[in-house]
Every structure is written in C-alpha cells, then in structure tokens.
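Morning. Coffee machine broken again, so started the prediction first thing and wrote up yesterday's gels while waiting. Chain of 65 residues, entered below exactly as on the submission form.
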Amino acid sequence: MKLAITLLSVAALAACGVETAGTAATAASIKKQEVEQGMKTLDQAQQKIGKAMEQAQQARENAER
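Came back before lunch.
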C-alpha cells in the first residue's frame, strides 16, 4: 500500500513538472513572436524614416534650384 501511495505521489509530482515545462515553453514561444513582431515594426519604421529623409533631401535640392 505504501508503495502504491509513493508511486502515485511521484507520478503526480512528475506531471506537475511536465506542466511547468509546457507553460515555460509556451511563454517562450509567445516572447519569440513578440520579438519578431517588434523587429518587423522596427524595420518598417526605419524604411519610413529613410523615405522621409529622401523626400526632405529632394525638397532641399528643388528649393536650391
């Protein structure tokens, strides 16, 4: 009987560890997606800034003519 209780206790604790590992993996996956989205947003912002700088340069050149 003690063996059965011990085995059930060990199984319950092991399942708890598996659940914790699964939760950590899910959280890591979500963070990875957030970082990837942030990188996309940064890239888009840099492209917009580059275009704005080009337009400003063209406007200066046109004003000097």
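Residues 28 and 34 are 10 Å apart (CA to CA). Going to sketch it on the whiteboard this afternoon.
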